[in-house]
Amino acid sequence: IKRTYPVLEDFFSRKLDIPNATGDILVDDILILADRWLGVSIPESVHSKVTRILVGISSALSTSTISPKALDSFCDRAVFPAVTPLGEHVLCSTNEFFVPDETEKLRYLLRRHATFLSLSEGYSLVDIQPLLATPALEHRLRRVVEFSEVESPIVYEPILNIPLTEKYKSRVGHVERCARGVIHVLYTDTDLF
Predict the structure, then answer these.
(1) Which helix (H) or strand (E) holds 16?
(2) Which of 30, 59, 73, 169 gives a 20 to 30 Å CA spacing to 1?
(3) CB of 21 within 8 A of CB of 51?
(4) Averaged over 83-109, what is the pLDDT?
């Protein structure tokens, strides 16, 4: 209620005495969606709903209203919204997507080659960080940063191409003279005004 109807929270909670949903109910809801949308592209409405449920589960973790058993029941299920290299939004399990880096620079570079966790507009990874940091999920998630920091096992010595280097070295003076001429012309033209 708090996230869906923030303005009406007081009305629902105090006047109608309706409690906020517990984490276990949210886990049940997301598992129903996971079964319904398994292996198919999800519409924006489902993408948004799944994101809100994950944010709710993260909030429930901070107030301890979710049982470890309920959390374990969804860790390996396709409950995370992700975007494929083709731009489709799908629900994926933890071994089917990468968690993007904080700056999202690597996500941008690899977006055509890998599937990434993708929350709906208005939400960021910070909103579900408590969920991603749980022991049940932390060791299962694949993070882009981990893979990008791995050093290449290929070791090579660069080989200098001497004839090509000499060719370009001889042209440096010409390029320098051309650049000075352009700069001189630019300053001369600006003096006319």
Answers:
(1) none
(2) 73
(3) no
(4) 86
